[in-house]
Specification:
11 strands, 5 helices, about 210 residues, four-stranded antiparallel beta sheet, globular
Length: about 210
């Protein structure tokens, strides 16, 4: 969990509760929402790409390149649309593997890929680096999740499954800061690579 620290100059920042140290000369917000203008130099499209990268990308080890491999056409088209909006250079290759057609989209190393990767870290997660986003920017991020790791229910609620606990913790925090309800659960799933823990966030449209 997190707490917002506020100084006499009305400067606020969000801090992990585990790292929080009280002081008598400061005031503390124990809850609430983030208001105000955008704080981070990220366009809406870059924020949407962060969600896509976290969910489906492979981060190259020897450079800042980013690779995606898709089967679903809707994901291919959405990613290409986002990349074209901000003119990130990429290549597309088609493969036939394991009895199916696959499309690889590779983002060439550039200042843009370095910037995007810096927010997700080496473990490719939505994390505390993004707590500086404004409420509006967090809403953009939450709305994008349904196109990647999430599915939309008939009532408009979003169900998000991820193997990253750090990501689901961030989503829960972002929901709290943007006045959305979020319920988190956990279950075990058997895959071709073995058994893994899956973390589920159920985000309600109506707060």
């Amino acid at each position: 969990s997190y707490t917002a620290k506020t100084s006499a100059l009305d400067y606020s920042r969000i801090e992990e509760a585990a790292k929080f140290k009280p002081s008598s000369d400061k005031r503390y917000k124990l809850g609430g929402t983030i208001k105000g203008s955008d704080y981070v130099n990220l366009s809406d499209t870059e924020i949407q790409l962060l969600v896509a990268i976290q969910a489906d990308a492979y981060l190259m080890k020897d450079c800042s390149g980013i690779a995606f491999t898709f089967v679903k056409q809707r994901k291919i088209e959405r990613l290409k649309t986002l990349l074209d909006k901000i003119s990130i250079k990429y290549t597309v290759k088609n493969y036939f593997r394991k009895g199916r057609n696959e499309v690889q989209i590779y983002l060439t190393s550039s200042p843009s890929t370095v910037k995007l990767r810096s927010y997700l870290g080496n473990h490719k997660t939505l994390n505390n680096n993004l707590l500086v986003l404004s409420s509006r920017q967090m809403t953009v991020m939450l709305d994008e999740v349904q196109y990647w790791d999430g599915t939309t229910k008939d009532n408009g609620d979003i169900c998000i499954d991820t193997t990253s606990k750090e990501t689901v913790d961030f989503i829960q925090t972002a929901c709290s800061l943007t006045e959305r309800k979020c319920k988190v659960s956990q279950y075990t799933k058997k895959t071709n690579f073995g058994v893994c823990e899956v973390y589920r966030a159920y985000v309600s449209v109506v707060s």
